[in-house]
Amino acid sequence: IDSMGINMLRFNHYLQKQQNPVAAIITGEKNNAVYIFANREHFHAVYYNVKNKKDALAHLCAAHQIEPHEVVYFFDDVLDLSVAEVCGLRIMIGNKSTLLLQRLAEEHKLVDYITAAGANNNAIREATELLMGISGLFDDTILQRAHYSVDYARYIKTRNTPAPVFYSSIDSIIKEQPPQ
Questions:
Q1: Alpha carbon 69 to chain centroid distance?
Q2: Cα separation, 77 vs 174, whole angstroms
């Protein structure tokens, strides 16, 4: 469900801009599930073993000629707060065990929306549907996908073109590094 939500949000962006949005994952750890997911969904980049996630964001923005304020950032924990400071739209994944962290994020204006659903209860889908609803194209996005429209076929062809580039932080420098 979360994966389809991400795909629909990307298609929603495509309908608005006639181009695919840059999609990336930034994680502090090595994570095989992330590598598999990013490959399957044709994300542009994966940053792993990154302890200062703001460095990864700066690298991503420079590589794709985008500004941090143009980024929608989905996050859930302490290591994400420095990135949340500079992103344009910050969505925190709700978690009953991090209520104080959520309060801190709200008080310091580091979050724009906290999902009602938790990480294992389709929180990403909740947020992607909210964003598509705000766009005014929710119904069009969903119905075009349901009927595999000409626009969706064009989108999916271009979406499936890139293969993710993998980066890691080595001595605090972001370098291309395929996972091993």
A1: 14
A2: 21
Name every residue whose Cβ is closer than 8 Å to that of residue 106 and which is 6 or more positions away in sequence: 114
Nearest-CA neighbor of 73 among 59, 57, 50? 57
Closest CA to 70 of 22, 110, 15, 19: 22
In tens, the pLDDT along 127-170 reads 999 999 999 999 999 999 999 999 999 999 999 998 999 999 98
Residues 16, 137: Cα–Cα separation, whole Å: 8
DSSP state of 168: E
How many whole angstroms separate alpha carbon 30 and alpha carbon 157?
29
Q: Which pair of tokens denotes residue 6?
A: 């991400």
CA 27 to chain centre: 11
Q: Any residues with CB less than 8 A from the CB of 178 and at least 6 apart, and which?
A: 166
Q: Spell out where 77-158 has E strands.
A: 89-92, 113-114
Condensed to tens digits (0 to 9), the pLDDT of residues 92-124 reads 999 998 999 999 999 999 999 999 998 889 999
* Token reading at 114: 């906290």
Map residue 58 onto helix, strand or coil: helix
3-state secondary structure of 137: coil
